[in-house]
Design a protein that fits this description.
385 residues; 0% strand
Length: 385
């Protein structure tokens, strides 16, 4: 072996020894954690093994060893074990101990017992700086129909955690039920700001501001609602048009009324508002009557030429009775035309006429599940079970 080769072999052995030395040192440092992890994993598997059985052959020494290693996690596992065995009392006790030991499992225990008033009271008293504990208490009290207590708990919670939009939404509804409209508006404003799950906060805020006569603010909330929703939703367009007319902003109401008009809803809305004394709605009514008349004439012309766009027109103007009646007269053998008429008649409240149109439509086109469902509801209302 040459001198160069010997040096290479020595360097290789030195690197190998250094690698294994470092690895052994690291393993030595991590050994307690590895041991703890193995113990907890073994405990977890053992505790879950009796799931579905009343038997729980678990060595008490295992509990004690795991508890010394990780008390909070072991108490939680004991609750899971009791739940698996169907021992509700033991599960409740273990959850109580887990909650008393630490707030680490507060979210999980709240999910397991969302309306348990005793747990919720204990949690809010034990952890007064945790907003979630107060929200839990609010939910539990509301379930018990203690609305005043729920409001107090929710208010305490939002003071600690201000950005929970869904709690603000719930607060707004509770205030509105109590007739405290200013507080309701403020709560809905926060739900609007932080975007509640259903994106209802802005619209609900607008509704309250309309009742308070603050039309400009209502307009702002409704337009924000439309931006948040991100797609055409007719109730939102209806609200925006109503608020803009009330605020005297007629030109800005036109785009929203046009969208409603395409679905046959502008004239009914303007008529309703005019009957309630809205001079702004009355001023717009004739304009949109002319607009809808021209539009319907145009669509009738297209339908006269061909039934190829019948499905599209039905989706664009599902409640337009005039168009639906024309479609039936032009294409009496098209089941969809009769189903369109049935939907439009039902929207007008003519249930007998709708039932007759559904029956005719289904005879020609039996694959429409929605039509069958609607007809079933009409039969049920009439007692034809």
């Amino acid at each position: 072996m040459t001198h160069t080769m010997r040096k290479s072999v020595i360097r290789w052995w030195m690197r190998t020894l250094l690698f294994w030395s470092i690895l052994l040192v690291l393993l030595g440092l991590r050994l307690p954690d590895f041991s703890k992890s193995l113990l907890l994993n073994y405990t977890f598997v053992t505790l879950l093994s009796p799931c579905g059985s009343k038997q729980a052959d678990v060595d008490p020494a295992l509990f004690e060893a795991a508890f010394r290693s990780s008390p909070g996690q072991t108490l939680w596992l004991m609750a899971v074990n009791a739940e698996c065995r169907g021992d509700e009392s033991a599960a409740h006790s273990a959850l109580q101990e887990s909650l008393a030991f630490s707030d680490a499992r507060l979210t999980a225990i709240r999910s397991a017992a969302p309306y348990d008033l005793a747990f919720a009271r204990f949690a809010s008293g034990k952890y007064p700086d945790r907003a979630e504990a107060h929200f839990w208490l609010g939910d539990a009290l509301l379930k018990q129909n203690d609305k005043d207590g729920a409001v107090e708990a929710y208010v305490h919670g939002v003071q600690l955690y201000t950005t929970d939009a869904n709690v603000w939404d719930t607060l707004g509804r509770l205030y509105e039920e109590k007739g405290e409209m200013q507080l309701a508006a403020q709560a809905y404003d926060q739900a609007c700001r932080y975007r509640d799950r259903g994106k209802n906060g802005c619209a609900l805020a607008g509704d309250v501001y309309m009742k308070l006569g603050r039309y400009e603010v209502a307009v702002d909330r409704y337009l924000t609602s439309i931006r948040q929703i991100g797609y055409t939703w007719l109730p939102a367009e209806r609200r925006a048009a109503t608020a803009l007319l009330a605020a005297g902003r007629l030109e800005e109401a036109v785009p929203h009324l046009t969208i409603l008009s395409e679905h046959g809803q502008a004239i009914p809305l303007l008529t309703e508002l005019a009957e309630k004394g809205s001079t702004e709605a009355e001023a717009m009514l004739q304009q949109f009557q002319e607009y809808e008349g021209d539009r319907i004439s145009s669509l009738q012309g297209e339908l006269s030429a061909s039934d190829a766009r019948l499905t599209e027109m039905r989706s664009v103007a599902p409640d337009n009775l005039t168009l639906a009646q024309f479609a039936v007269s032009r294409y009496p053998n098209r089941g969809e035309a009769h189903l369109w008429l049935a939907d439009a008649l039902l929207k007008q409240g003519d249930k007998d006429g709708a039932k007759e149109a559904y029956e005719r439509g289904i005879t020609l086109y039996a694959e429409d599940g929605n039509a069958w469902a609607a007809l079933g509801r009409l039969y049920e209302e009439k007692g034809d079970i």
